[in-house]
Amino acid sequence: MTCTISSATPMLSMLRRAAPRLTRHLFTCRHTHKIPVRNQAKRLFGSSGPLRYDAGLLSKPQIAFDLAKSNKSLDAGRSERAKYFPETSNKSVAYWLLGSAASVFGIVVFGGLTRLTESGLSITEWRPLTGSLPPRDAADWDAEFTKYRSSPEFKLLNPRMTLDEFRSIYYMEWTHRLWGRLVGVSFLLPAAYFIARRKVSAPMAAKIVGIAGIIGFQGFLGWWMVKSGLKDDLFAPGSHPRVSQYRLTAHLGTAFVCYTAMLWNGLSILREHKLLADPQAAANLFSRLGSPQLRIFRRSIAGLAILVFCTAMSGGLVAGLDAGLIYNEFPYMGLGLTPPKAELFSDFYSHTPDKSDIWWRNALENPSLVQLDHRILATTTFTSVMGLWAYTKLSPTLKSMLPAACKKGMHGVVGFVCLQVALGISTLLYLVPLPLASAHQAGSLALLSSVIVLGGRTWVPRRAVNLVNQQLRKHAHSIRKQ
């Protein structure tokens, strides 16, 4: 046994010395040495540095043997994720968005009627689900009327109101709230369908989710606004019970933002389809609209949209304070173009001993100054529109470079601003009659719509440019293949 072990020892020593040479020369895959390890690692990991590995665990061939295959799998995964949403949204999404915008337009006008008929405070509770149905029998009507009789509006303004009169204002507010619920349902359900069925592009899906959030927030603002007219501590004792002009303006502004978002995105989808139908013509149009010589006109439209929005919000303050019921004349306000300074900046509206808030509180709470501000903003809007229209007519550059669609859009803005000025002055002179006041509120949203349409025809959206360039590259590639 000892002899056997001693004779095997030289053989084991010889095999141990030969093992490294056998591994190095006989068990190396020559093909893997031809794979550019550094380049493959750079493509896979996005790094230009050398690939680090543990020599005690892995060898270079083991690191690089399947990098090409892994890289292809990774690219395929990214491509699949990118293709989850299409490049462009379906036209049906555009028509749905425009229909939703029309519904929001209608509810804004009807909300103005609800305010003008003083029906907004008739429902004293907020029940998003159970409030969808009106009272069904006499007991339910008595219960609702009892709740209304405990409100400040009934005690101070309508102490002799009968049940039949209450029903008329109740149905106005109930219809307004039901319409709001229908706007939410008719938006959320199709939105979920279009996103789940991949009918929208990825950016459009995010925008739709944002609009859905605005709708939900708008419902909360509506009740927050109504709540301000149901408590005595939210307005001066003995004053006219009304909702807060701040909350009313916030509610109105959110509705304008929601409507504008729906309108703009719906028109954008239709415009993308029209441009992609003829990419070469679209590229020529973008080159024309993107000219530095039209920069002033493009920026002026953006400024005009902001000015129209601010004027409409100042109208919300006028409505919240019933400021249209004073100084029912134009262009004068009393004995001059403006009321006396002491009336415009009265100490009555200041809430601090040092009167440091006298400027902004009068601008937002003094009916005289609020109406004057609205007049100034409206006059500025009218002057700006007419000045921009004259610029398109008198500038040789704009006359030659501005597309016909932009010129027609400018004419539309001029028509709407003239109509809105006429409605505003008539509403003031005739002491805010219901039809004129409602038409004036609708006119503000129509004027903003015309400016948005003009902007859609004039501004150069980056996404549309990228899509058109992509189509042109695909077309050029297909020609080279032929």
Structural class: mainly alpha
Order of helices and strands: HHHHHHHHHHHHHHHHHHH
Principal-axis shape equals globular
Task: Work out the helix count.
Answer: 19
Largest sheet: none
Strand residue percentage: under 5%
Radius of gyration from CA coordinates: 35 Å
* Spans of at least 5 consecutive residues with low confidence: 1-8, 22-28, 30-72, 74-78
Overall residue-averaged pLDDT value: 85
Description:
It is a single chain. The protein is an all-alpha fold. The chain is built from 19 helices and no strands. Helix 9 runs antiparallel to helix 10 and helix 12 runs antiparallel to helix 15. The radius of gyration is 35 Å and the shape is globular. The N and C termini lie far apart (83 Å).
How are the secondary structure elements laid out?
Elements: H1 2-26, H2 37-45, H3 60-64, H4 67-82, H5 91-116, H6 138-149, H7 152-156, H8 163-196, H9 202-227, H10 245-277, H11 279-289, H12 295-321, H13 341-344, H14 358-365, H15 367-394, H16 396-401, H17 404-429, H18 434-458, H19 462-481
Helix pairs in contact: 2-4, 5-8, 5-10, 5-18, 8-9, 9-10, 10-12, 10-18, 10-19, 11-19, 12-15, 12-18, 14-15, 15-17, 17-18
What are the main properties of this structure?
72% helix, disordered N terminus, mainly alpha, 482 residues, single chain
